[in-house]
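Each field is set out as follows.
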Amino acid sequence: MSATRHTRVLIIGSGPAGYTAAVYASRAMLEPILVQGIQPGGQLTITTDVENWPGDASVMGPDLMVRMENHAREMGAEIISDHISDLDLSQRPFRASGDTGTTYTADAVILATGAQARWLGLPSEEHFKGFGVSACATCDGFFYRGQEVVVIGGGNTAVEEALFLTNFASKVTLIHRRDSLRAEKIMQDRLFKHPKIEVLWNHEVDEVIGTDAPRGVEAVKARHVETGAITEVPCKGFFVAIGHAPASELIKDQLKLHSGGYVWVEPMARPARRLVAFLRREV
């Protein structure tokens, strides 16, 4: 039987942004409801060491998210295991529909839906997803013990993935379309010094090569961005780490978005205080 729940503040998403919003809204006595979504804890739950969280020289991503969730609960936030499949911002109170059949109405909605991994968009990449092609080294790295793997990308995510995979793989090849990385310098230093990692500069991946019986990756075809020359790189695992796309499907036809898909927000001084003042005035 479906139910309707009303809250002054509905928080959609349970990554660091969602839990932080829950803590502040609870401290303001707004009694928020946070709906966790399909991946409670967000992307940090599939991350290993987090080294840039103030107060912790190193903390495991899943452990950090458990602490954040507990903090939000201790402050008084109600945290619900559900997934919002539809959001109507056309009238007040706003209405959100959960997969459990529950309808949530709210005077204010905080979107903390995070982002999802970007893919190259190759037919062969799609064909081998789950059979050697992955976007999560933490999830799948264990399956490539003693084997060669390839990572594509040039930012922090790609470097972190490559370094993590050295715990299992015999060799890690990082492919990047430029001649320098965008990752933090400390991460680059670790990468360049690691004996298991080789970097293939100025290349893009054109195709994932593999077998169908059984289905599995055997190599990738990498094309030089200037000469067009093709290099075939043997590997059993291919990890795509080229960034993330915002999970903004719920509001893509209702709110103004940046070209990258992120919600356009007006410049605002002291946004948290203004939100609280608005809710106290209007609710």
The first strand starts at residue 4 and ends at 12.
